[in-house]
Design brief:
The chain is α/β, with parallel strands linked by helices and about 350 residues long. Helix content is about 50%, strand content about 10%. It contains 13 helices and 7 strands. The strands form 2 sheets. A 5-stranded mixed β-sheet has the order 3-2-1-6-7. A hairpin with a 6-residue loop joins strand 4 and strand 5 (about 190-195). The longest helix has 27 residues, at about 220-250. Pfam families: DDE_Tnp_4 (PF13359). Its cofactor is a divalent metal cation. GO terms for molecular function: hydrolase activity; metal ion binding; nuclease activity.
């Protein structure tokens, strides 16, 4: 975070985190409060460490961090992570096509396990398949690595697909309350297809969610391997967003020794700060993020296809597959697809 970004953030939060000075004491300034909170998020320092560094009481540091994190969520979320409307979805779709050559795409979806200390009396609820205790961040990310929708607080033992199907996002998607744009033909075609979210093999194939073809099918048919390649290339934005989040906020690189309800606020606050930094980055930085992500592998390890998929849903994926092998083909895709085992 550059100094001008820090000043802009302070101005947004100042009214909410400034305390009143009295005859008995001088208050800790808004700048100091925000500095303590950002130091906690960026370095993952303990409250005791921050207490020594800033010469404050441990209880003071504790209250400052919890209050400021809550304010960050309340103030920044309506600004940098507002619920998308149809116009915003259209912009996201254009960005995915212009940057990642994937039309009618509204976002990449994935889950991230956040390492936490096992909560008291929680049993195995938070114990995940990676053999540590976690809470899950489920996110939809746009073409420029900003978080569009986040769902936090799910148990670590749950799968990404299970978390998705119990999320508010899934319920709104299935009840047509996300204000998605109407169906639109892919470039150079005439048949209208729905706008879609893209995910890996952990997510179910549905009318508005695309996942890769199973490995066995892709191995024997080049067009399916090309589809997996193109989908993976666009889907990498969510993986990169999680990577950027982890590098910016080192608290994700350590075990959070905090109650789950406070972990959820920390995760929400860091995603808001991540979006704030992307929206307010130095001119010229935007192209740096896209320059090194071009040809990425796309083969899934899952050989199983959900047998409950309807013919209409399978047809939608097949239409995208045919488009990527015909009018939407890229010069390099066949060579890369045949090189991938």
């Amino acid at each position: 975070m550059e100094y001008w970004q820090f000043l802009k953030l302070t101005d947004l939060l100042r009214v909410h985190i400034t305390k009143k000075t009295t005859n008995y004491r001088c208050t800790i300034t808004a700048e100091e409060r925000l500095t303590v909170t950002l130091r906690f998020l960026i370095t993952g320092c303990s409250f005791k460490n921050l207490s020594f560094n800033f010469r404050m009481g441990i209880s003071t540091v504790h209250s400052i961090i919890h209050e400021t994190i809550r304010v960050i969520c309340d103030v920044l979320m309506p600004i940098v992570m507002q619920m998308p409307d149809e116009e915003m979805w259209e912009k996201v779709s254009r960005d995915f096509f212009n940057i990642w050559n994937f039309p009618n795409c509204l976002g990449a979806i994935d889950g991230k396990h956040v390492n936490i200390q096992a909560p008291d009396n929680s049993g195995s609820l938070y114990y995940n398949y990676k053999n540590f205790f976690s809470t899950v961040l489920l996110a939809v990310v746009d073409a420029k690595y900003s978080f569009l929708i986040v769902d936090v607080g799910s148990y670590g033992k749950n799968s990404d697909g299970g978390i998705l199907q119990n999320s508010k996002f899934w319920k709104k998607l299935n009840t047509n309350k996300l204000k998605l744009p109407p169906n639109k033909p892919l470039p150079s075609t005439t048949e209208s297809l729905p706008h879609v979210f893209i995910g890996d093999e952990a997510f179910p194939l549905s009318n508005n969610i695309l996942r890769p073809y199973p490995r066995e099918q892709a191995r024997t048919e080049l067009s399916k391997k090309v589809f997996n390649l193109r989908l993976s290339r666009a889907r990498k934005v969510v993986e990169c967003a999680f990577g950027m989040l982890t590098q910016r906020f080192e608290i994700y690189q350590k075990r959070m020794k905090i109650q789950p309800k406070y972990c959820d606020l920390i995760i929400l606050a860091t995603t808001c700060l991540h979006n704030f930094l992307i929206e307010n980055r130095t001119p010229g930085q935007e192209n740096e993020f896209h320059s090194n992500i071009n040809l990425l592998t796309a083969i899934t390890d899952n050989n199983n296809e959900n047998s409950s998929n309807s013919d209409a849903v399978l047809t939608t994926r097949n239409k995208f597959k045919d488009y990527f092998s015909s009018s939407g083909a890229l010069d390099w895709q066949d060579e890369v697809a045949t090189r991938v085992s």
